[in-house]
């Protein structure tokens, strides 16, 4: 698939579409450390956001954050970034949006207890490690969309598992629908609500044949 196809989406249907984009981090940059690493990952995530904006027909302007580090909308467009050592992501939308990704890995029982209550864990008998990161990234996506800090993670409640890739969170008396995607040992979540989600995963470096599109 050529670059023209990557950057220009098909004509929109009646259902609004969001285009979360994941970019792999080149091996050499994965070895960076400290501020240099954070700076690169931030720039790379904005590259993912730029592709998401192009797919949505939006021209990016200067990206500004608020006092608490929350992304501020521009021209009615909301945006969210996420990054880990191996991958970064970005998404743009016409309403409040949040996106978060994590590498699936073992974690402590104490972290399980901090992330969700027993009633939430009882909603599913799926693999507990994937479920943990499904819950974690879902709640992170919601607090990013709302502009709140990590302190509000415990105020998010998983109230319904829709299927393997979607669930519902209650936060501040509002329900949020979250969609997930699994790739290369990672899971990424985005606030779906009334949107149709079209995921794009791009290896590094970006080239004309690099796109993996998930409809």
Quantity of strands, as a count: 12
Identify the strand order in the major beta sheet.
Answer: 3-4-2-11-12
N to C succession of SSEs: HEEHHEEEHHHEEEEEEE
Number of helices: 6
Using the coordinates above, name the CATH class: Alpha Beta
Provide the β-strand percentage band.
Answer: 25-35%
**Distance between the ends:** 15 Å
Radius of gyration: 17 Å
Structural class: alpha+beta
Shape: globular
Provide an overview of this structure.
- A hairpin with a 3-residue loop joins strand 3 (78-83) and strand 4 (87-93).
- This protein has a five-stranded mixed sheet with strand order 3-4-2-11-12. A five-stranded antiparallel sheet has the order 5-9-8-7-6, covered by helices on one side. A two-stranded parallel ribbon has the order 1-10.
- The chain has one domain (18-207): Ribosomal Protein L22, Chain A (Alpha-Beta Complex).
- With 215 residues, it is an alpha+beta fold.
- The two termini are 15 Å apart.
- The chain contains six helices and twelve strands.
């Amino acid at each position: 698939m050529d670059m023209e196809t990557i950057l220009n989406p098909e004509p929109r249907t009646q259902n609004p579409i969001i285009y979360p984009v994941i970019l792999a981090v080149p091996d050499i940059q994965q070895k960076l450390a400290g501020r240099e690493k954070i700076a690169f990952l931030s720039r790379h995530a904005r590259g993912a956001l730029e592709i998401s904006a192009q797919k949505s027909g939006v021209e990016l302007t200067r990206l500004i954050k608020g006092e608490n580090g929350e992304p501020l909308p521009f021209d009615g467009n909301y945006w969210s970034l996420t990054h880990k050592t191996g991958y970064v992501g970005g998404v743009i939308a016409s309403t409040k949006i949040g996106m978060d990704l994590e590498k699936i890995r073992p974690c402590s029982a104490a972290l399980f207890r901090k992330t969700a209550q027993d009633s939430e864990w009882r909603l599913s008998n799926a693999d507990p490690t994937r479920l943990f990161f499904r819950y974690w990234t879902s709640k992170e996506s919601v607090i990013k969309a709302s502009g709140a800090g990590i302190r509000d993670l415990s105020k998010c409640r998983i109230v319904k598992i829709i299927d393997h890739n979607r669930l519902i969170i209650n936060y501040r008396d509002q329900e949020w629908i979250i969609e997930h995607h699994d790739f290369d040992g990672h899971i990424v979540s985005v606030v779906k609500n009334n949107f149709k989600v079209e995921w794009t995963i791009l290896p590094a470096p970006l080239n004309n044949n690099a796109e993996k599109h998930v409809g």
